[in-house]
């Protein structure tokens, strides 16, 4: 080995552990769009990230209510951001607390998995809309509680 090569190796030697550690902690960028279903058989989707890294998670669930009724809720879309480990979590309260949602997920390679829950509160007094339809309005302190329970979901990356 030449003296010059030995000097170069000696100069680079302190950097080798740093380069190895950096390579070991590198997290590859997850693929774009994911689509799949939840445990109830309803579609879920995780969009490709926008230029700020935010993705849209779209989901819905079947609800069971304290008054014995059941229904399939409308879909929700929450803006989420994956952390460096590919995980996300989002909790929201809307309609003055009448709707509460929690979603979480993890992206690993071409697969994403997670869990969601939706809880909604309604009045127990129906109101008549202008078209004659009777509806039960959302009400944060309403006595009727509708809950999806914890629902798992999974999705795979789309090309």
Explain the overall architecture:
- The protein has 159 residues and is mostly beta strands.
- It is 13% helix and 46% strand.
- The protein is built from 2 helices and 13 strands.
- Strands 1, 2, 3, 4, 5, 6, 7, 8, 9, 12 and 13 form an 11-stranded antiparallel β-sheet that branches. Strands 10-11 form a two-stranded antiparallel sheet.
- Strand 8 and strand 9 form a beta hairpin.
- The longest helix is centred in the N-terminal third of the chain and has 11 residues.
- The N and C termini lie far apart (50 Å).
- The N terminus is likely disordered.
Defining key terms:
single chain, 159 residues, mainly beta, eleven-stranded antiparallel beta sheet, two-stranded antiparallel sheet, 13% helix, elongated
Q: What's the helical proportion of residues?
A: 10-25%
Specify the overall morphology: elongated
Mean pLDDT: 87
Q: Strand pairing plus helix content: what structural class? A: mainly beta
The biggest beta sheet reads: 11 strands, antiparallel
Roughly what fraction of the amino acids lie in strands? Answer: over 45%
* Separation, N- and C-terminal Cα atoms: 50 Å
Q: Care to count the β-strands?
A: 13
Number of helices: 2
Q: What value does the Rg take, in angstroms?
A: 24 Å
Q: SSE string, helix = H, strand = E?
A: HHEEEEEEEEEEEEE
- Name the poorly predicted regions: 2-13, 18-24
Summary?
By secondary structure, the chain is mainly beta. It contains two helices and 13 strands.
Topology overview:
Elements: H1 3-12, H2 15-25, E1 34-38, E2 43-46, E3 54-59, E4 62-65, E5 70-72, E6 76-81, E7 87-94, E8 99-108, E9 111-122, E10 127-128, E11 134-135, E12 144-147, E13 151-157
Antiparallel strand pairs: 1-2, 1-13, 2-3, 3-6, 4-5, 4-12, 7-8, 8-9, 9-12, 9-13, 10-11
